[in-house]
Amino acid sequence: MPTMHTYDYAIVRVVPRVERGEFVNVGVIVSCDATDSLEARIELDPSRVLALDPGADVDAIRAALGAIDAVCAGSGAAGALGTMSARERFHWLVAPRSAVIQTSPVHTGRSAAPDAVIEHLFKTMVRSPQGHAARE
């Protein structure tokens, strides 16, 4: 029987007008203590963001989303955050904030293949359902 690993995840959201509370799911962050992993998968669809706010600064949003990858990687580009443990970086990334980039509440799951979890979550929580693009 394969070993089951517990993981935590949060959905990354772009909230172009915080006062309205409308958002677009643009990514997933997954942390697994057993494998000491922290990974993000981000994909920005500017047209979805601009549908909520035609004046949204897509370049600034893209830059802010890029910082998530640096924090997950623990790279020098993340500054002092890059020196923290993967778990500490995850908690920093998912801390509640009132900003254009936000995350959902943290959810927990179990999987024998935690490396495959991010792809499944990304497809189901971020990508538009099949056929949606054809109606636009």
Secondary-structure-derived class: alpha+beta
Mean pLDDT: 91
Task: Give the termini distance in whole angstroms.
Answer: 46 Å
Which spans of ≥5 residues are poorly predicted at pLDDT below 50? 131-136
Radius of gyration: 15 Å
What is the total number of structural domains?
1
Strand content: 15-25%
Major sheet characteristics: 5 strands, antiparallel
Q: What percent of the residues sit in helical stretches (DSSP H or I)?
A: 25-40%
Which sequence of SSEs, written as H and E, runs from N to C? EEEHHHEEHH
Number of helices: 5
User: How many individual β-strands?
Assistant: 5
> What form results from the Cα inertia axes?
globular
Describe this structure in words.
The protein has 136 residues and is an alpha+beta fold. It has one domain (5-104). The protein contains five helices and five strands. Strands 1, 2, 3, 4 and 5 form a five-stranded antiparallel beta sheet that branches. β2 and β3 (37-42) form a beta hairpin. The radius of gyration is 15 Å and the shape is globular. The model is unreliable at 131-136 (pLDDT under 50).
